[in-house]
Specification:
It comes from Geoalkalibacter halelectricus. The chain is α/β, with parallel strands linked by helices and 133 residues long. It has three helices and six strands, in the order βαββββαβα. The N and C termini lie far apart (56 Å).
Length: 133
Amino acid sequence: MKINSKSKKLIIFGIGKGGQHGFKFFKKNYNIIAFCDNNSKMYGEYFFNIPVIGPYDIERYDFDEIAICSSYKNEIYEQLVSELGFSPNKINILDNDILIFGPGKPFLFYGLSFLIFLGLTSILALLIFNLFL
């Protein structure tokens, strides 16, 4: 029996650029039930028509995973695990430089380090190509 991954309920932590990227990627395969942020001015607002909640409201939601999509990933992870007591197994960290795909855990390449790598690779390919002309 195949389980539809869209049935997995996800909370995205972060409503900045990381949260925007996370939403665009996760919306195809996950049921995004809330965004979470530490900015209390955003509580009760909507981001992509999805409610924004505070970290202390997470426990009131029935969710499968939390995806941290923020440049404050280390601080948020520590907050979720140490302060709020969530299991590390329910938390995915999406890094700004490289997001890696684990079993059922999406990752993207959009960081500066990857773009530099692409640029250097292209220059090397052109040099090698010109040697054989």
